[in-house]
Design brief:
heterodimer; A: 115 residues; mainly beta; seven-stranded mixed beta sheet; four-stranded antiparallel beta sheet; 50% strand; B: mainly beta; five-stranded mixed beta sheet; 49% strand
Chain lengths: 115, 111
């Protein structure tokens, strides 16, 4: 149980375009989802907390207008990288949890390459 | 959130037991300790979680002393496929829950 699905697994886009990444909790409802990014050989960095039905909470230094997060249902959160630039190339990972004492479960990540 | 400190890297050989210790001196009463494993180009995978004493599941054991200022992840009889980065995290199990990742421990298992 507690499967988090992320799509697409990899995407290549041109500089200036926008890219949407989907994160779904397949067998549970998640009122809260989290978005991370990870650069090569580095640890995961929390970007934002996505709350169903309300605005996301962004970590310090993360541009909310560039990384749009929508959590429209209890099983789906999306991250849109707007006007992508090469420096946005990274590994983006979403996660979700049931709540209570349950741990956080992660998707398999999306490799974004901006050319 | 309590900061965690763990070794940057460890080496082991197949069949050995590996113990990775993490310190979290500022752990709070409501905090739980969680360990994750990450392979390259994959999302982290949950290994084990505990609050105090000892927790065991099918893949690992977690030892937490009474003062909870540290914890030790024990991997019995590692194999080559256990080569990965292991993260120790502390999180408060309430509405403020979030996981902040440290550097992790890069475990290399040699034949």
């Amino acid at each position: 149980g507690a499967v988090v699905s992320q799509h697409p697994s990899r995407v290549i886009c041109k500089s200036g375009t926008s890219v949407k990444i989907e994160c779904r909790s397949l067998d549970f409802q998640a009122t809260t989802m989290f978005w991370y990014r990870q650069f090569p050989k580095q640890s995961l960095m929390l970007m934002a907390t996505s709350n169903e039905g309300s605005k996301a909470t962004y970590e310090q230094g993360v541009e909310k207008d560039k990384f749009l997060i929508n959590h429209a249902s209890l099983t789906l959160s999306t991250l849109t990288v707007t006007s992508a630039h090469p420096e946005d190339s990274s590994f983006y990972i979403c996660s979700a949890r049931v709540g209570g004492l349950s741990p956080l479960h992660f998707g398999n990540g999306t490799r974004l390459t901006v050319t | 959130l309590a900061k965690t400190t763990q070794p940057i890297s460890m080496d082991s050989y197949e069949g050995q037991e590996v113990n990775i210790t993490c310190s979290h001196n500022n752990i709070a009463t409501n905090d739980y300790i969680t360990w994750y494993q990450q392979f390259p180009s994959q999302g982290p995978r949950f290994i084990i979680q505990g609050y105090k004493t000892k927790v065991t599941n099918e893949v690992a054991s977690l030892f937490i002393p009474a003062d909870r200022k540290s914890s030790t992840l024990s991997l019995p009889r590692v194999s080559l496929s256990d080569t990965a980065v292991y993260y120790c995290l502390v999180a408060r199990m309430d509405s403020s829950y979030k996981l902040i990742f440290g550097s992790g421990t890069r475990l290399l298992v040699r034949p």
